[in-house]
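quick one before i forget lol
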Amino acid sequence: MVLQLDMIQSIALAVVVLLLGQGIRNRVKVLEKFCIPAPVIGGLLFAILALLLRQMDILQFQLDVTLQNVLMTAFFTTVGFTASIQLLKKGGMQVLVFLVLAITLVSLQNVIAVALARVFNLDVLIGLSTGSVPMTGGHGTSAAFAELFEDKGAVGASTVAMASATFGLICGSMLGGPIAKRLIEKNNLSQETANMEAIDTPAEEMATSGEMLEPKNFSSAAFQIIIAMGAGTLISMLIQRTGMTFPSYIGAMFAAAIMRNIADLTGAFKVTSTEIDILGNISLSIFLSMALIGLRLWELADLAVPMLGMLLAQALLMGVFAYFVTFNVMGRNYDAAVLAGGHCGFGMGATPNAIANMQAISGKYGPAPAAFFIIPLVGSLFIDFANSGIIVAFINMF
């Protein structure tokens, strides 16, 4: 039997699955420890159920994913609103250096992904589905780019990317602590004086949790997102005329970035960052849930062995890069060691994983304020822009 759900029913199912994931995450502490998102938990359970029902010839699901694309564009639009040139300047040289390191890692992740795809005689786009798309990009970027890969004929790209992103979340959380511990103890490092100048500068952007939320700001945030999405369609049309391949959300992302920097420079209007971030998180959660309930896990059967090899190579790259490059370039001090542990978290998973890694490290060895300043700024605000551009370059190159 085939159960066909329309657009409204599909998004309702996605929300139910999301709430199921939240309930399980609240009760199973190991999932919370590794920062596994609720949509991933609920979505993977549904995907496994759908696989079992299909294999037993009982039931298949057909979903209308129209709203998934709308939510995806909305989320990446909110990412665009974080791309403040003014904020990057305030962050100082350490933030810029770490951003360069993060971009270098992104490029290496894709080089390894493409090289191993050729070794295993796989489509290059399947290879990229194990590179920076799921590693630095996480589940959100995976769902967005994998759809593009599937449209270009890379069957199974969505499933590979989502599975790789989940592997990255767990592996990045497990790598960070041991690497930082080894660096601290081997080099006899101790807690150093906090760099107060670096910490205090963009406080208005980084410490938003205590702000009062106002209803009018939510409407303003929603209107700004919608305007950026609309303007983004025009930018995307112009970009597509270059003949290069870009994800559908890229225009909206650029439009939001332009709006943000106009607001910063002129003060003509206010970008309500807190409310935009909340709406972005809601969009991401439902978007991910919809993407995961649509996973076709049966497509992994022929890719299991090469995929495992490619993911282990990514884990090795991350560990070596954090230990030898991040630590040395960022100053070979205590903050650099904590940064190396944090880099494992968001270089293979997401910024919350990086924060969790650094909290565990600093809880044992002492505070590292500079590290806690740099990682969220780069991981949450700037790396998504750079990662999208590099992925697009690799797609068009190969």
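fyi Residues 193-210 have pLDDT under 50 and may be disordered.
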